[in-house]
Amino acid sequence: MYVELVDETGQVPSEIIEQTKEVLAFAAKKLDLKESTEMSVTFVDNARSHELNLQYRETDRPTDVISLEYKPDESEFFFDEDMELPEELLEEMDPFIGELFISIDKAAEQAADYGHSIEREYGWLAVHGFLHINGYDHYTPEEELLEEMDPFIGELFISIDKAAEQAADYGHSIEREYGWLAVHGFLHINGYDHYTPEEESEMFALQEEILTAYGLTR
Question: What is the number of other CB atoms lying within 10 angstroms of the CB of residue 12?
């Protein structure tokens, strides 16, 4: 895939520009896009992002990445309105799929807020916007590719005071209690809950199965 990169700010390091090309090429291969596919990425500041959001989205603020999907217009190539053309043919005639605008101000701000590197943030924004251009949205298989870039799923905070108190209350070992809390929290991170009797039954059964298999029985 060919990616045209433009840095309107003059502040993006060459390493970030090269990384953006590489990560988008990797993403294109994961989606099995044709090598002839083309797109553009423009690095902007918050003022320009705000302007673009007003122009294209009617959104009165800057955002981290703006994704503008492009679809070929049949009328540009053919004059017969009754002729229906396969989407594949249109894509071959015009391989451009869209453009991204990444705010360098938002990238720096979010890297600091999330406690990760600026390289990671630029990579995330590039792939996130790229997937929007290709028809993905939040809470869809988009997450699969993003998870490959960032395998971190969450964090647990375990109270040692509560662990000691509950081990004594339930009459089992402190090892069992720490194991229970760790697995319980882990299952919550992975989408399990116990708000209904059905959910509780499923979650606690799996939790006990894991602990017993590991050897942390009551």
Answer: 18
Distance CA 134, CA 123 (A): 17
Q: Report helix, strand or coil for 83.
A: coil
What pairing do the DSSP bridges indicate for beta strands 96-103 and 65-69? antiparallel
Which of these, 98, 53, 91, lies nearest to 74 by C-alpha position? 91
CA torsion sign for 44, 49, 52, 53 is positive
Q: What is the pLDDT of residues 111-136, one digit of tens each?
A: 999 888 999 999 999 999 999 898 87
Residues of 107-121 as b/e, b for ≥16 C-beta within 10 angstroms?
beebbeeeeeeeebb
Instruction: Name residue 68's beta-bridge partners.
Output: 99
Residue 11: which residues within 8 A CB-CB, separation 6 or more? 43, 104
CA atoms of 109 and 49, how far apart (whole Å): 14
What's the mean per-residue pLDDT of the chain?
A: 84
Cβ–Cβ < 8 Å for 39, 94: no
Candidate from 52-66, 91-105, 158-172 with smallest mean pLDDT: 91-105
Distance between CA 8 and CA 218 in Å, rounded? 63
45 φ, ψ (degrees, to nearest 5):
-100, 180
Residues in the chain: 218
- Beta carbons of 185 and 153 less than 8 angstroms apart: no
